[in-house]
Specification:
single chain, alpha/beta, Rossmann fold, 2 domains, two-stranded antiparallel sheet, two-stranded parallel sheet, 6 strands, 9% strand, globular, HAD_sf
């Protein structure tokens, strides 16, 4: 089982994200203006797949906590955060649409290699993601959809990681049950969210959600995963922290 954002794929930079939305709306803006407001969007945590809010307004706390349960909550939470960034342009819906575009995402250099190797070994693969939209087109456009056996997305089940129910759905779809669960591995970048798979007895392998250019081969560890602790606690292997 793999997480999506920060594990198999990485969202584009916030500045490029903003430029893409402005271009879609036909808005011209100076480079320094785009750079300035991209930083404000980052601070607000307004980019899905980007950093979390530096300071979350109290009025948005519940929306943030439950954002991945439905498509409507996801859109509402992130457009509210972008509105809190003080942009001089009304491009909040365009920003949201931009982040759902395959062009906004880039696979890590070893993503296709690892998924193909697992397919060659006959190991079934599921993508388990906290998300509010259908990411399957991203996988199709980047040529790796056929290497995934099941997509288990939080908004389609109204359950979000670390809730064990989402991992249980993935295991069921992969035909994994009984003692075989202890041979299943959840690969992700969040100890809190992805570590929820340990409650079912799965092993957990963690990678850092670094920029694509800075993380060329962290997923290769999946091909020879650690044994982990047999008491159900996650066994994590992480890449060195980025700058």
């Amino acid at each position: 089982m793999f997480d999506f954002s920060g594990t198999l794929f990485r969202i584009e930079s916030c500045e490029r994200w903003l430029r893409g939305a402005l271009g879609a709306e036909g808005v011209e803006a100076a480079d320094d203006e785009v750079a300035r407001y991209a930083k404000e969007l980052e601070r607000a945590g307004a980019q899905p797949g980007g950093p979390p809010p530096e300071r979350l307004p109290d009025r948005l706390a519940e929306a943030w906590r439950t954002r991945d349960l439905t498509a409507e909550r996801h859109r509402a939470a992130y457009t509210a955060l972008s509105r809190s960034a003080g942009l001089p342009w009304d491009v909040h819906d365009a920003l949201y649409e931009r982040h759902r575009s395959p062009a906004a995402w880039q696979p890590y250099p070893d993503t296709a290699r690892v998924l193909a190797e697992l397919r060659g070994r006959g190991v079934p693969v599921a993508v388990v993601s906290n998300i509010g939209w259908d990411l399957r087109p991203v996988f199709r456009v980047h040529g790796v959809a056929d290497l995934v056996d099941a997509f288990v997305l939080s908004y389609e089940h109204e359950a979000q990681k670390p809730d064990p129910r989402l991992f249980r759905v993935a295991l069921d779809r992969l035909g994994v049950s009984g003692d075989a669960v202890r041979d299943a591995v959840m690969v992700g970048d969040s100890p809190e969210a992805d570590g929820g798979a340990a409650a079912l007895g799965c092993r957990v392998l963690l990678v850092d959600p670094l920029p694509v250019a800075d993380r060329p081969d962290a997923l290769l560890a999946v091909l020879d995963p650690p044994e982990g602790d047999r008491d159900g606690a996650p066994h994590a292997r992480r890449e060195p922290d980025g700058p």
